[in-house]
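Look over this today:
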Amino acid sequence: MSLRYLIRLITAFVVRFKALLLLGVLIGIAMFFILNLYKTKIADKSTERIGVSGKYAFESLPTSILNLIGEGLTKMDETGSIEA
């Protein structure tokens, strides 16, 4: 397939479907602006941080993670004895 044939094929397609292509582009632009206008109502803006990303060695773990690792496995009661 030559380059000249490909250019003529694309040109014929655009000439034949120019109204449909223009309508699709206009609808796409309108939907973009409408969704950007109402995105606060559609999507919840609140985010919850559920983890820490990155590569860490045990010595360089953030203190928030070290505190979570140390807690939760065992508990101490009022007398000082360990509960599981």
